[in-house]
């Protein structure tokens, strides 16, 4: 990338093709010449090997991590696991149901007993405790384990569930629930879920001749189910977005042959990236969100980066250069820009690693993987295909792009239509700048009432047993389950919880409050409530629970809580708190990168301010579409700001470089700021518009999935890209650069005093 411009210097022999990186020039010539066939073979082998590894990736794919190390819920889970190992590191619910039998039927009870016995034989299952009908005395707690290595299971006689009277409005008479402790870390619990579920279902079916069903309910199971749905959604999304992206390439480039090159490079990048994830999955967890992010970014970046190189290659060929030389020039010029853009994506992804949420770390690694793989494919496979398919690039040329038939919709009357508008904008830049800022500010206003939260995404779970089970839990008044840990080290007597327990029993939200003590150093209270753990009511109940404990428990008593609601609350809080760290790091890194690249102070200041305004406008539109106009008034996923901010900032920096680099090239040769701005618009409007359209379609494809968070993220990124590539990049940036004139390239020099 060339540093800041200087108005002096001879005019280039061919506009846009001079300069660039000598190393990339040599790489492009080698790839287009003697190394071309070798490069194609290597990428074919990489793509083919990746395709063979994909079945293993789908088998090893894990749900996104929900734990936040060091959070209050993680600390509570560790305390419970140490003091009550039989309760495991997570508590899940066995939900029994029958279309014909009541819960007190002997066959129903045999099914429960057989299921409990079969699961108790598994080393990854601890104690099991039946949940009584609301209003009935709780069952006896399981005996404490004599050592952390021993597990325990309560007597099966305690598993009987009494159906309520018809008028009580209590639990459904054909439903019964058993609380089960699950051993292992988060990854082990997720991987053991299918076998546990199969064991439970087989035992219940054999004991009741198929009359009683059972499923396992919990936050891990819910997100595991969503992970399985992600794979099907990813395939359907690609089936819809790839043809649309291909059509845009054909229309934008004017020929089927030219459009095929970015598609091949993008496909190779996608397969190679997925192959890398398949290899990584054998060593560390790879979740479904990471896979979706990698595929989406690889497709969009692969098409965009190759498109830029292709356009420069065509320009060089029209200038009379041979294919190998043209490929070298394209790699040296557009390749330099592409390299910078990939570095920008990597830089804006890295700050996610400082967030204390493992889910964010997965996204950071996925973003860097997509950037580096697509960069390697664009710089090597791109020039190789361009030179070898040079004689076929114009195959399938559209009628209006053929010689003698005009130059298509991009031009009218021999001039680019929008250039006349750009010239008018140069005469009144202040008006255009103010109007653009006003539009963006108006779009950003709804952010002021944005609501964020984390939800199970029930529409995506509709039709599954976990979706039906969660709905049943809510109807039966046991939607939430919280384990309150009350450690009392150095004192064998249990914590006095009588007043606390009695207060909970009078709370209409609470359906069960059972106290256990291990006889050594820990008292535990199991609290079941009616609040779905992913709703605002659950967050309010958690606050009330802690306030009540602080008031009614002995003074100074530590109170720790863990459960689905607590885990989701800590995850949302970790993401929101980490957002400010990411904002600070990304803004500072972007400013420094742009300042060093263009040797300017005002260009990076403008870029950072405009990118922040663009992200706010995108979230304002997201708030209107999903929260205000959506039928259910859905909350915005609390994890979205992290991912959308990093993606949009990286892509916005790409478009900033596309435009400002061309402006800087012209200004360096002639010193005329207005002419340089017009020149930059003329030569970047087409690639920016086409690249942005492809990226918007790629991310917009996420709106075709069943996951609400994917739909929201896809909409936000697509909206930000459209805003950035149109009113920001084509109106606001050139207007401000016209207003600032030579000040665009001002950079104060630090004077160092001389020693005397």
UniProtKB/TrEMBL annotation:
It is found in: Cell membrane. One of its GO terms (cellular component) is plasma membrane. Keywords: Cell membrane, Membrane, Transmembrane, Transmembrane helix. Residues 126-173 are annotated as: Disordered. Its main location: membrane. Residues 69-430, 507-748 form the Membrane transport protein MMPL domain. The keyword GTP-binding does not apply. This is Membrane transport protein MMPL domain-containing protein. Residues 131-147 have a biased composition (Pro residues). It comes from [Actinomadura] parvosata subsp. kistnae. The lineage of its organism: Bacteria, Bacillati, Actinomycetota, Actinomycetes, Streptosporangiales.
């Amino acid at each position: 990338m060339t540093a800041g411009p200087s108005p002096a210097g001879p005019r280039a022999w061919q506009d846009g093709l001079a300069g660039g990186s000598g190393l990339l020039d040599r790489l492009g010539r080698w790839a287009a010449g003697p190394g071309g066939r070798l490069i194609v073979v290597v990428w074919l082998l990489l793509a083919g090997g990746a395709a063979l590894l994909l079945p293993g990736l789908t088998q090893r794919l894990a749900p996104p991590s929900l734990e936040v190390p060091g959070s209050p819920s993680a600390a509570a889970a560790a305390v419970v696991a140490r003091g009550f190992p039989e309760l495991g590191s997570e508590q899940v619910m066995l939900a029994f149901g029958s279309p014909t039998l009541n819960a007190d039927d002997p066959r129903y009870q045999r099914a429960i007993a057989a299921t409990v016995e079969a699961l108790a034989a598994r080393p990854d299952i601890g104690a099991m405790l039946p949940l009584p009908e609301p209003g009935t005395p709780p069952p006896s707690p399981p005996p404490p384990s004599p050592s952390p290595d021993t597990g325990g299971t309560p007597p099966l006689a305690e598993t009987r569930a009494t159906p309520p009277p018809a008028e009580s409005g209590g639990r459904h008479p054909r439903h019964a629930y058993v609380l089960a402790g699950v051993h292992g870390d988060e990854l082990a619990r997720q991987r053991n879920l299918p076998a546990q579920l199969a064991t439970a279902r087989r035992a219940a079916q054999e004991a009741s001749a198929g009359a009683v069903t059972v499923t396992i309910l919990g936050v891990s199971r819910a997100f595991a189910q969503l992970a399985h749905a992600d794979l099907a959604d990813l395939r359907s999304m690609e089936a819809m977005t790839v043809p649309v992206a291909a059509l845009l390439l054909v229309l934008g480039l004017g020929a089927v042959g030219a459009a095929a090159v970015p598609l091949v490079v993008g496909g190779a990048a996608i397969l190679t990236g997925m192959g890398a994830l398949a290899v990584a999955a054998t060593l560390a967890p790879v979740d479904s969100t990471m896979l979706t992010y990698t595929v989406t970014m690889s497709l969009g970046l692969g098409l965009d980066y190759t498109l830029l190189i292709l356009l420069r290659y065509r320009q060089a060929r029209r200038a009379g250069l041979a294919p190998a030389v043209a490929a070298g020039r394209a790699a040296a010029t557009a390749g330099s820009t592409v390299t910078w853009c990939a570095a920008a994506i990597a830089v804006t992804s890295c700050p996610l690693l400082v967030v204390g949420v493992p889910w964010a770390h997965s996204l950071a690694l996925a973003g860097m993987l997509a950037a580096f793989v697509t960069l390697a494919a664009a710089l090597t496979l791109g020039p190789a295909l361009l030179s070898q398919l040079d004689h076929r690039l114009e195959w399938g040329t559209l009628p209006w792009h053929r010689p003698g038939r005009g130059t298509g919709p991009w031009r009218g009357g021999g001039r680019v239509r929008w250039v006349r508008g750009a010239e008018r904008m140069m005469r009144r830049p202040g008006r255009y700048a103010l109007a653009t800022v006003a539009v963006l500010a108006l779009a950003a206003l709804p952010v002021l009432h944005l609501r964020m939260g984390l939800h199970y995404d029930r529409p995506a779970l509709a039709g599954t047993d976990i979706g039906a089970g969660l709905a049943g839990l809510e109807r039966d008044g046991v939607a939430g389950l919280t384990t309150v840990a009350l450690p009392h080290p150095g004192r064998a007597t249990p914590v006095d919880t009588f007043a606390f327990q009695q207060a909970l029993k009078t709370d209409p939200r609470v359906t069960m409050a059972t106290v256990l003590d291990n006889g050594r150093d820990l008292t535990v209270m199991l609290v079941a409530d009616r609040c779905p753990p992913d709703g605002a009511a659950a967050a309010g109940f958690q606050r009330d629970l802690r306030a009540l404990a602080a008031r009614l428990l002995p003074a100074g008593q530590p109170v720790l809580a863990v459960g689905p609601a607590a885990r989701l609350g800590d995850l949302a809080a970790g993401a929101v708190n980490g957002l400010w760290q990411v904002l600070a790091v990304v803004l500072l890194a972007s400013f420094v990168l742009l300042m060093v690249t263009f040797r300017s102070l005002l260009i990076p200041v403008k870029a950072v301010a405009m990118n922040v305004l663009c992200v706010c406008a995108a979230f304002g539109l997201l708030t209107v579409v999903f929260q205000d106009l959506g039928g259910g008034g859905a909350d915005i996923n609390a994890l979205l700001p992290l991912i959308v901010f990093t993606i949009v900032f990286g892509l916005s920096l790409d478009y900033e470089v596309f435009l400002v680099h061309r402006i800087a090239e012209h200004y360096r040769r002639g010193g005329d700021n207005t002419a340089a701005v017009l020149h930059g618009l003329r030569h970047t409007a087409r690639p920016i518009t086409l690249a942005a359209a492809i990226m918007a379609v790629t991310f917009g494809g996420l709106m075709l999935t069943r996951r609400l968070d994917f739909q929201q993220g896809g909409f936000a990124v697509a909206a930000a890209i459209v805003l950035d590539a149109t009113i920001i990049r084509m109106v606001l940036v050139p207007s401000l650069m016209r207003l600032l004139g030579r000040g665009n390239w001002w950079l104060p020099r630090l004077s160092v005093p001389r020693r005397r």
